[in-house]
Specification:
By secondary structure, the chain is an alpha+beta fold. It has a single domain, classed as Jann2411-like fold. It has helices at 25-30, 48-57, 63-69, 75-93, 98-114, 133-148, 178-195, and strands at residues 9-12, 15-18, 33-34, 42-43, 116-118, 122-124, 154-156, 165-167. Strands 1-2 form a two-stranded antiparallel ribbon. Strands 3-4 form a two-stranded antiparallel sheet. The chain has a two-stranded antiparallel sheet with strand order 5-6. Strand 3 and strand 4 form a beta hairpin. The chain starts with 8 loop residues before the first strand and ends with a helix.
Length: 196
């Protein structure tokens, strides 16, 4: 089972959400699941409410709008967001995965079609799209990330039960959080040496 270490998460509006360690909201969205390769990954987005609160906390949806949408309970939008997250994770960890890329591109296209030009703000996804707002905002951010970021600069934490993503333009970062995954690995190596 993936660890539920409290150093990886915080309480936001009464809901447990992961820390923002990715350096970009889209990578932090991917990190709403921990232990991607684990038999029982840790899922933070267990309801539409979690998705909306997370999007508000990440700055993708205005917090007052998120408060209004929070209890809408749109399971279909949550499932769409989780499918997008899986495609994003695959795209960021294997940029040659054409199926994942196309899935993200299709969602980014939907977001672009929903955006309106607002004086002084630029292109925005209007609140009038309703419960789809969080997934459209994420899709728009995903399109921006993929067009502006060399995916070779996205790191993946090798920590046991982790797999979180983060921007690493200098390619010097190994862990999502050194104080957690890095120290755990040090402790494992030390235990192996002392047993051996």
């Amino acid at each position: 089972m993936v660890s539920t270490d409290s150093r990886y998460q915080n309480l936001v509006d009464g809901l447990m959400l992961p820390l923002a360690v990715g350096g970009h909201p889209v990578l932090d969205f991917c990190n709403t699941r921990a232990g991607w390769d684990a038999a029982e990954p840790r899922e933070y987005l267990t309801s539409y409410e979690h998705l909306v609160v997370w999007a508000g906390e990440a700055g993708l949806v205005d917090e007052s709008v998120a408060a209004r949408l929070r209890h809408a309970g749109d399971q279909g939008v949550l499932e769409r967001a989780l499918a997008l997250r899986g495609a994003l994770y695959r795209t960021c960890t294997d940029p040659s995965d054409d199926d994942a890329w196309q899935a993200v591109a299709a969602e980014a296209h939907e977001a672009a079609a929903a955006a309106v030009l607002v004086r002084g703000e630029g292109w925005v996804i209007p609140e009038q799209v309703g419960t789809e707002l969080p997934v459209l905002a994420l899709s728009r951010a995903a399109g921006t990330l993929l067009e502006s970021t060399d995916l070779r600069t996205v790191g993946r934490c090798p920590g046991h039960g982790c797999g979180w993503l983060f921007l690493d333009p200098r390619r010097r970062r190994r862990w999502c959080v050194m104080a957690v995954c890095g120290n755990r690995e040090k402790a494992r190596r030390h235990a192996r040496r002392t047993r051996g």
